[in-house]
Amino acid sequence: MTDERPGAQAWVAGRSTLAELRSAAQECRGCELYRDATQAVVGDGPVDAMLMVIGEQPGDQEDLAGEPFVGPAGRLLDNALGKAGIDPASVFRTNVVKHFRFSGTRGKQRIHKSPSRVHVAACGPWLVAELDLVRPQGVVLLGGTAGKAVYGPGFRVGETRGTLQQWPSESSAAPAHSDPAVIGADYQPPQWVLPTTHPSAVLRSRQREEDLAQLVSDLSVAAAALDPGGN
Ligand code: URA
Ligand code: SF4
pLDDT of 206-216, one tens digit each? Predict the structure, then answer.
């Protein structure tokens, strides 16, 4: 972290409810991405969800609405979750970076670019606080940015997609794990992680039907792993 990009820690510290996290994130100056975004978009869904789905960053519509996954990628995700036998309303959905990274306009459309490692690292404490709040049994990682946030820069979606992985003992979000202002002492990480492709990649794909079927098949593995009798 640098003076200009101190990380979100100071804004996250001491917040424990979702409403507190949501309003505190509006003040966050942990990195420069707040400047061009409309608002911070934190996670949404039941705080007792068994499953947390983690994407990259809010898109254009999410930035305007203040809610994650309300645009085309979110609709595709909901459709895929439903086909895999998971009620989309039962899932807590969030992103590794909470502000839209603006990179220009194309006609009326506002274009974003992927957040870089420094933004993911700066924003990590929000994700850690969400994990502490929800304590999901399992986590689905959508795409490379979410995967790298948890497993580091060597992560490749194609290597592990659709297979159950363990939450790593070290991750980019790990430094905050040791800060009692951000995370409870009794925190337990998710029992499993399922990497898969990002729904935006399916939307862009030339073989959309096949890629959607593959996403649904990956999510079915998560559906089967969810244990209603577990935490
Ligand atoms: N893509 C994401 O990764 N997250 C959103 O919230 C919307 C689109
Ligand atoms: Fe804070 Fe994350 Fe927004 Fe950066 S992207 S200002 S760290 S909430």
Answer: 999 999 999 99
